Structure formats: structure tokens, C-alpha cells
């Protein structure tokens, strides 16, 4: 696998063949009996979403972000704390943030909202949001539509961020991509063309709950040995804290690892190895054009990502090469992706999700 290091200069949806690193690199597959990845001379996919302004909302455990977005470009944005006093307070804050922006952009006729879950996309419900008090069976789509008079599209928050990277960010020259976000937990999303892959029940992309080590550490989902329990920021802090005999944050572990401390470095390398294993498994299953790594751990940069790349290459030896890229859009990905799914739904109504969607990990 190759780690993409080139810079990016625009978040506009340009012809995909004109983007730096536009063709997936080909692994020399001689003597391996496997086909090399075919380089494309034409764009892998085109921008089929009509240009329009839409409103994107990103509902987080601590912050609500809102933005007016057009073609992946944030035109205006705002943010406020997420209330922790129940659904009605959250709804009021979402409505207030939306009205503030819509007053200056009255032409907007659709909004998308990215929310933690699990979700019921068909009924527009947040079934449960573990970090937001009172968000149980919350009819968020219906209530927002009633309050704002706009079409509302509900999407899983990790899917929304990944979709932004797929359409306008680090994967915009890929026809297919897998997004993996690694922070406190691990989530992901699967994308082909301009579509989000939800799966039969909406649980597609729950990569953090793939079992990588049977009998391993207990995960928050109730199973043992999940990717999230082995390689998330929380897992790194847990492993290092046990080794040192004192509580350490993820940031402290990385600082000690950079300084060459063996115990901290061992925790980082173990997590990177499991992430490489997870990516290699996804490569063998989906054969995407590339991976995008987002979340807090991606911000560590090459110190961490190069270790992930080496591990992924080792576990995928003999398979076609694929690029691993760091997410480009940062904190804006959530609102950009939410706005993008609303634009897609407005122009392609038959693509509306009709399933449940899981959490972001």
C-alpha cells in the first residue's frame, strides 16, 4: 500500500482525473498470479449531484455545527454547545442554528443532518445517542421538517464525514473508497460512485466492530477483540496506562512515543499494527480504489500513518496495492457531508435510504 502525501489546493468537485495522485498506483504483480490495479486515464466518476446550496448540520456529543454549503464549499457556518437536557432542547438548538443561516440564504430548500446512532433512516429516528442525554427514539427528521419547512435527510455522522471526503476531499479522484475515522472510537463508511453504501439494515461501515482478535479486550459493543477495542485512541491510552502503572491520555502516550520511550512506542505500534490488519482485511473484501483515514489519530501524521501503512502492506502482501490517504477536510467534513447527502437526495430522490444505520463507533 502507498501512503499519499501530496498536498491539496481546493475542495471543489473538479474532474477527478485532474486531481493530484489521480490514478491508483500499480503494484508490480509479476510472479504473484494476481492482476495489478488498473490505472485510469479517464475520471473514475463524475459529479452527478446538481449544484445547489444546502444546509448541513453535524450533531455531536459536545457541539452542534451548522453550515451553508455549495459544491463542497462552506459559505457560512456557526457552532454552539450541544444541550444535555433532552431531545427538545437539542431540537431547539438545531432549529435556532438553522434559522440563523437560512435567514441569509432563503433559497436553500433541503438540509442534511449527521447524527451519532444507531439510527432508523426509514422513520428518521435517532434510536439512541450515547453521548447526548435524552436522545432515545427521537423523531429528529419529522420535527426538523415541521419546524423549518424544508426537506430533511438523516445520515450517520461517520458516513457523512466520509462522504465529504469521498466527494470533495482526499478521495475525490476515487470511484470507490473506504473511510475510517480513528479517535476515541473507530467508525467508517463505504462509498461507490456518488452513493453511500448502507447495507440491508443500515449497518454497513461499522468497521470498528470487526473482530480482529478473538478473546481480546472487551469493546463497548459487548464483544471482545473488536478493532475499536484494540486500536482506538482510548485503547492506546488504556494499554500504555497499564504498562506505566499510571493514567495517561492518548496525547501523552504519543508524546512519550515520539520521545522514544519504549513502553509508549509499543502501545502505538500495537495499535497501528491492528489498524493495518483491519485495512488489509477491508482491501481483500471490497477492493476499493483507496482508503481515507480521519479522526484525531490521523492528525498525528506520518509518525502514526507510516506504521499503519507498513502493517497493512505486510498483511496484504500479494494483493494489488492501494493508497492510504489522510483526511483533508478536518472538522468541516461533518457539515459538508451532511449538506452533500441532502443535495444528492434533492436531485436523486430514488436514492433515499430506507434502512437503519448504526453508530459511528
Features:
361 residues, alpha/beta, 2 domains, six-stranded mixed β-sheet, five-stranded mixed β-sheet, 9 helices
Question: What is the strand and helix layout of this fold?
Answer:
Elements: E1 2-4, E2 53-59, E3 63-70, E4 73-81, H1 87-102, E5 110-115, E6 119-120, E7 125-128, E8 136-138, H2 140-148, E9 151-156, H3 157-168, E10 176-182, E11 186-192, E12 195-196, H4 227-231, H5 233-244, H6 250-258, H7 262-286, E13 290-294, H8 302-315, E14 323-326, H9 333-347, E15 356-357
Parallel strand pairs: 1-14, 2-5, 5-9, 10-13, 13-14
Antiparallel strand pairs: 2-3, 3-4, 6-7, 6-15, 7-8, 10-11, 11-12
Helix pairs in contact: 1-2, 3-9, 5-6, 5-7, 6-7, 7-8
Amino acid at each position: 500500500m502507498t501512503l499519499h502525501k501530496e498536498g491539496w489546493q481546493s475542495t471543489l468537485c473538479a474532474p477527478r482525473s485532474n486531481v493530484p495522485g489521480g490514478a491508483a498506483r500499480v503494484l508490480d504483480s509479476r510472479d504473484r498470479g494476481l492482476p495489478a490495479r488498473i490505472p485510469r486515464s479517464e475520471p473514475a466518476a463524475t459529479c452527478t449531484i446538481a449544484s445547489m446550496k444546502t444546509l448541513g448540520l453535524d450533531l455531536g456529543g459536545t457541539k452542534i455545527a451548522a453550515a451553508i454549503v455549495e459544491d463542497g464549499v462552506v459559505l457560512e457556518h456557526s457552532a454552539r454547545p450541544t444541550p444535555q437536557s433532552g431531545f427538545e432542547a437539542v431540537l431547539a438548538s438545531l432549529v435556532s442554528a438553522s434559522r440563523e443561516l437560512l435567514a441569509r440564504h432563503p433559497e436553500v430548500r433541503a438540509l442534511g443532518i449527521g447524527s451519532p446512532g444507531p439510527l432508523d433512516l426509514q422513520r428518521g429516528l435517532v434510536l439512541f445517542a450515547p453521548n447526548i442525554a435524552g436522545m432515545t427514539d427521537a423523531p429528529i427528521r419529522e420535527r426538523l421538517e415541521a419546524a423549518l419547512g424544508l426537506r430533511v435527510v438523516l445520515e450517520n455522522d461517520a458516513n457523512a464525514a466520509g462522504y465529504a471526503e469521498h466527494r470533495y476531499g482526499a478521495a475525490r479522484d476515487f470511484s470507490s473508497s473506504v473511510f475510517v475515522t480513528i479517535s476515541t472510537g473507530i467508525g467508517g463508511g463505504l462509498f461507490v460512485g456518488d452513493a453511500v453504501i448502507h447495507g440491508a439494515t443500515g449497518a454497513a461501515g461499522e468497521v470498528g466492530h470487526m473482530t480482529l482478535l478473538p478473546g481480546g479486550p472487551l469493546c463497548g459493543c459487548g464483544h471482545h477483540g473488536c478493532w475499536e477495542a484494540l486500536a482506538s485512541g482510548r485503547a492506546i491510552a488504556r494499554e500504555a496506562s497499564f504498562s506505566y502503572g499510571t493514567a495517561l491520555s492518548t496525547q501523552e502516550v504519543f508524546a512519550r512515543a515520539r520521545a522514544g520511550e519504549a513502553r509508549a512506542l509499543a502501545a502505538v505500534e500495537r495499535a497501528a499494527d491492528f489498524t493495518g490488519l483491519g485495512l488489509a482485511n477491508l482491501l481483500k473484501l471490497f477492493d476499493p480504489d483507496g482508503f481515507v483515514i480521519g479522526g484525531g489519530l490521523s492528525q498525528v501524521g506520518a509518525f502514526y500513518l507510516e506504521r499503519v501503512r507498513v502493517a497493512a502492506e505486510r498483511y496484504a502482501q500479494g494483493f494489488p496495492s492501494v493508497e492510504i490517504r489522510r483526511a483533508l477536510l478536518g472538522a468541516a467534513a461533518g457539515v459538508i457531508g451532511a449538506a452533500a447527502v441532502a443535495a444528492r437526495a434533492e436531485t436523486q430522490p430514488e436514492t433515499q435510504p430506507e434502512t437503519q444505520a448504526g453508530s459511528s463507533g
